[in-house]
Amino acid sequence: MTNYWWSEKIAPGYLHSYEVTPLYEERTPHQHLLILKNRFWGRFLVLDGVVQLTEGDEFIYHEMLVHVPLTVVSKEPQSVLIIGGGDGGSLREILRYPSIERVVQIEVDEAVFRACQKYLREISGDFDDPRVQLIFGDGASYVASEEVKSHPFDVVLVDCTDPVGPAKILFEEDFYRHVREALTPWGVMVQQASLPRTIPHVMPMAYRRTRRVFPQVGIYRAPVPTYGDEIAFVLASKLEVDLRRPQRQVSGRYYNPEVHQASFALPTWWQDLLKTPEQEAA
Ligand code: SAM
User: What is the pTM of this model?
Assistant: First the structure.
């Protein structure tokens, strides 16, 4: 196949350009899906023009998304709900915990799952593991269902796209309320909260809304080079625990207990952004 230069618009006047070999393209009922290959970053997934993960740096995002919440939950984590995450990278990291007995994953777009299983299989956890149940549907409706409330989760991990299209509802206050009800009394929720540099309204919006619902909320960050800047995560707990302090020792390629603690140190401009009044930031 012919190589060409493909660019992601990170911000007005700022592109990330990759020399790519196209591997797959589909207009799914939910989004435009591309799988490309670049000789530096490897294979990568693009949804609606936005890079979701590359083989070269996905470990930073997935380890930080999974190990921060799974190490702060005060009981050994046994059950996890993943919303989104159709590439399977979060599942891979969750299955590293021997205490895990049940993982339910709900992904709205079956095409993402199919394409990633074919072209990005190496990064995925094992969906054939008997502890794992994969459902295709909207995470917000699922989390509001009676079925979930009668079988709550220790961790809800919102591994979603930014709040446009199908993921918009995953940043609503009602969604966070349903997540709280879907958690065990010691449960925690984590969500990627976008890039404060280029999409500055998402982190303060997610922070404010989760703070209205959970007694304890923290923001932490990770540098994922192909996203263009540091990404924010919002971590919300039903118990007032010290979110900076891991309760169990886990070490990955990026994550370790020191990185965990340090990732909660926020630059002054992030702290200022979190104080932005609602009407300005929304
Ligand atoms: N690493 C990524 C990032 O932050 O850029 C997230 C990757 S993962 C592929 C995001 C997934 O969330 C997509 O596959 C998308 O289909 C899924 N998603 C978006 N809205 C959803 C919803 N309401 N319910 C379930 N899954 C959803």
Answer: 0.96
